Each structure stands twice: as C-alpha cells, then as structure tokens.
Amino acid sequence: MGQLVYLDNAATTQLHPDVWKEMTPYFTEFYGNPSSIYRFAQTSSQAVENAREEIAAMIGAKPSEIYFTGGGSESDNWALKIIAETYRSKGNHIITSSIEHHAVLHTCQYLEKQGFDVTYLSVNEQGIIDLDQLKQSIRPDTILISIMAANNEIGTIQPIAGIGQIAKEFGVFFHTDAVQAFGHIPLNAEEMNIDLMSASAHKIHGPKGVGFLYVRTSVKLPPLIHGGAQERGKRAGTHNVPGIVGFAAAAKRAADHMKETIEYESGLRDYLIERIENEIPFSVLNGDRIRRLPHHVHFCFRFIEGESMLILLDEAGICASSGSACTSGSLDPSHVLLAIGRPHELAHGSLRLTLSEQTTKEELDYVVEELKKTIQRLRSMSPLYEDYLKSAERHKGIL
C-alpha cells in the first residue's frame, strides 16, 4: 500500500504507543482476575481502581460514580434505560434532540414502544438546540433530558452547561453522550450539572471495546447485567483490565496535552476548511464555525455522490467518511444533515474529515489536491452538473 492519510478519527483512533505500553503488562504479567482475593490478583484490582480515579478526576466526579462498560453505545443504552425504568413512577416523558447518535435515538424509539413519550428537539442550521425551546418542552412528567455534548457527524458542540442548568432548575435528570467530546474539550460533570455521561476509549487513542458511564451518586442505579459483584454489583462480568488501564492512560494523556492539542488541531482544521471553501466550488460547510470540535471538518458538495467520492479518495490512500461509521452502508441521507436543513441531493454528497495530533499540514495539502481532482472527475460525469452549466450559460447570454 502506498501513502496513507488517515482522516477518520471520529470513527476510531490509532492506539497510542504510550497507551499500549501501559496495557501490555495486564495481558501477560498481571493477568489475575481482579475479583479474586489472593495477592497476585490484587495488582489487577488496584489497576482498575486507579483507572477509575484517573477518569473521575478528569470530569470532576467521584471514583464511585464511574462504571466501566463495553463502549459508548452500551453506556448510552444503560443511561436512558436507568432513568426510564427507575423513575417511571415520576413520569414518562424524555427529551432528546433530532441529531443524536443512533445509540440514543434507537433507545428512545425502543422506550416509546414501552409507553414513554419522547420529544425530539429541532436544531438550527449549525446543529445547535434552542435553550428556550428546551425549557418550553419540559413538562411535569419529564424525567430525562439527553443531549449529546458534540455531534459525531458535523462536530457542533452543544451548550452543555446551559442545558445542565435548565435541567437542574426543573429537577430533571440530564444525560450527555460525550463519546465525541470526552478528551477533546474540557468537561466537568459538577460544574455543568451533568447527572449521567457516556464516553468511549477508542475516540482518544485508547483501545476499542471499553467505555464508561458516569452516574451521579443521587441517581438510583439498577443493575445492567446480573451475575457477579463487579462494578459494585451493577454490571456483572470479569473486568477488561488491559482495556480499562488503556482507557485511563489515554484519558490522562488527553487531559495533560489538551490545551496544546486543541490549539494544534483547530489550526489545521481551519486551514483545511479555508482551502476547501476557496478552491472547491459549490462546497458547503456543515456545523458551527466556532462551536465545533477542534479536529472536525464536514462538508457537502453539490453534484456529487458521496460513496463514489469516498471510493476514489480511498484509491488515493485517504481514509475519510460521509458521517457516522455506525450507519455506513445505509443508502439513506444522514438524519443529522436533514435536521440542519440540507436537501436530500446535497446531503448525499457529504464528506467528514477528522484530524488528530498526528495529522500534518502536508497531508492536508495532499488531501485537498486529491479531493479537487476527485470532485472534478465525478462532476464531469454528472448530468445534474452538466444541466447546471448549460443553464448558467443560457442565463449568462440573457444578461
């Protein structure tokens, strides 16, 4: 394989060598089951608790409020079902947004079948909810607000502190899907009045298959998996010790370098946006220009079919996506793009480019040049583009 430029870090990230170094001993040397009582196993047990403390400190939480899971989707499911099933006697109304990850949306649809009433808030053209609309949507029977911290497709950051304040004022639980935001931007559960938070290790150069759910102490928490006493009896099953250790190592590394990483990635992000807007006609930036993740770029291109674009970019050694990796293969346009007002034909020509601290300016220059050639090639075969050019020429003659 020739040159490889990886720009799909919102889908997953490369495991960092320092993280792998921390994980390795727990595969081979300290392999004891952390639930066992003998001293050899206590090394594994202590590693899990150290990881819990590390992650809790990063979001201003108590270690006892961190529950390790198998990833972000599990955490989202657990969070919504916790509140729905435990607090149903207080109400059956849930508020979320129209641009949530499907781990939240599909769980809400499941809960609707169980008799819950769900309000899906609209968003503006930048993908941000309206706080006044949120307030107006709260009812006496509202028990939960679930709004993602940052959108996985277009990178827009929601006003989490404002949402948390409203939830607190009305006495409603607030859950945020922070899978794309955790480790990339500062988050503090206490300061932002967050009651439940989901996150995943593989979005921050940690291992796949491990996440956490933060649950404020005041929230009643029924078991997710029955069996052993792991996770204080709430999630049975032998701990994924190497994964948990890796998650904590990745989280600490992200926290220690967050300021400089944000500065570096946002500089490259803005450079890439500027080049695409200036050099590729009929390109439309999706998401808020300012309130967006530092490593996130998302465009729609007119007269382009997204899947063909991705295939051609792949042939050039460029890894990119049209949106969420969880919905790849779907022929339907992105629900996020439709929610922010993009028409179907434009939504089909979407491209998500997500950077990392390892991305270089030279790589982005290569990507822009290949993208220009790819789009020119596809438009040359597009009857819609040909019709547009003919129409433009006729109007030019009239003028």
**Global outline:** globular
Rg result = 23 Å
Q: N- to C-terminal separation?
A: 52 Å
- State the share of residues found in helices, binned by percent: 40-55%
The number of strands is 12
Order of helices and strands: EHHHEHEHEHEHEEEHHHEEHEHHEHH
Secondary-structure content class? alpha/beta
Q: Count the helices. How many?
A: 15
Oligomer: single chain
* Percent range for β-strand residues: 5-15%
- Please give the order of strands in the largest beta sheet: 2-8-7-6-5-3-4
Overall pLDDT: 95
**Sequence stretches where pLDDT stays below 50 over 5 or more residues:** none
Topology:
Layout: E1 5-6, H1 17-23, H2 25-28, H3 39-58, E2 66-69, H4 72-86, E3 93-97, H5 102-113, E4 117-121, H6 131-137, E5 142-146, H7 160-170, E6 173-177, E7 196-200, E8 211-215, H8 230-233, H9 241-256, H10 258-279, E9 283-285, E10 296-301, H11 306-315, E11 318-319, H12 335-339, H13 344-347, E12 350-354, H14 361-380, H15 383-398
Parallel strand pairs: 1-11, 3-4, 3-5, 5-6, 6-7
Antiparallel strand pairs: 2-8, 7-8, 9-10, 10-12
Helix pairs in contact: 1-9, 3-9, 4-5, 10-14, 11-14
